[in-house]
Amino acid sequence: MKSLKKVLVSGASIAGLSTAYWMNKVGYKVTVVEQASELRRGGTAVDLRGNTIDIVKRMGIFDQLNANRLTLESIEFKNADDGTEGSISLKDEGGKLPDEIEIERDKLISILFERTKNDVEFIFNNSITALNETEDEINVTFKTGTQRAFDLVIGCDGTHSAVRKIWFGDKAEYTHFLEAYFSISIVNKLLIKPNIMQFYNVPGKAYMLNAYKNKTDIVFCFSSEKEIPYDYRDTEQQRKIILEQFAEQGWRTAELLEEIANSKNFYFDKFCQIKMPSWTKGRVALVGDAAYCASPAAGMGGSLAMEGAATLADSLEKHNGNFELAFQDYNKNFRSFIDEVQAEAELNVRENFILRTEEAIRRRNTQGSPW
């Protein structure tokens, strides 16, 4: 860059921290603003695969990630009596694990923060409330009332992105509902053997347990043709939806609902995707779930965030900071990959996660899953 330009990144997420790293790397002075008072902790493990492995090697963090990888060994499909009707081994014949990294989200966030904290300005407990673009810069108003000017603003603030709402319009314009809901709770004990994932289904409902490092992820999913009205900030209202949806079901439901009822770690949302004709407008770009959420059914949220951040920065470097040409490249070069991942995720919801008939459940349990 001929001169050091300033960029504001909204959200200290995987997407935000990755974007901060790459923007600093290609010559920008980076500020990250985060609504929370500290880094957001919690969340299920993250899978990094495909081109993302090359990206983390470029970032110099592959060895750290690999040293902290989880070792999921098999997936089991259970029946109502807790019998195993089928399973998939994730090791090859030589006992090697797949060429991808599964890592706790907390650990990944910590590694990314350590990689960026000395080169990037972090502002916690604040957020963007208004944007005003001029010919030469974009002026940002913060919740605290302060104002600052930047060359670019990048929204990495998730599915409910404030940057997207302010600059691109209401999320209803871009949200594609996949006719299903899910909840995630993480309990600090093993409910099944470690390094195992278990699935149990009844028509229209799905359960998943994932155990690792003395923790268990409890995931409940259910189909719903119509959207359910709820406040995404009201955790107790969301918890009640799950408790009512799964009441008096079989398998280990009573035990798992008791865990959810008492868990301080609970997240609920609809399976949805963000589909936008453009992820950029003027001097503003979106990265990660804010731009192209594929839903948890893709198992690619972390990878898409990190690949999107690298793709955007590479485009800016290629065009020597000409953001208009770089943004065109970003929209063009990353689009086909996103379309492919979203299509696969939509198929997963219907045909692999939340099966609609007993016949489909038996077939999946005995034949295994294509993913």
UniProtKB/TrEMBL annotation:
Secretion signal span: none
What PANTHER family does this protein map onto? MONOOXYGENASE, OXIDOREDUCTASE-RELATED
Indicate what this protein is called per its UniProt record.
FAD-binding monooxygenase
Q: Which residues form the FAD-binding domain?
A: 6-317
One GO molecular-function entry: monooxygenase activity
Q: Which UniProt keywords apply?
A: Monooxygenase, Oxidoreductase
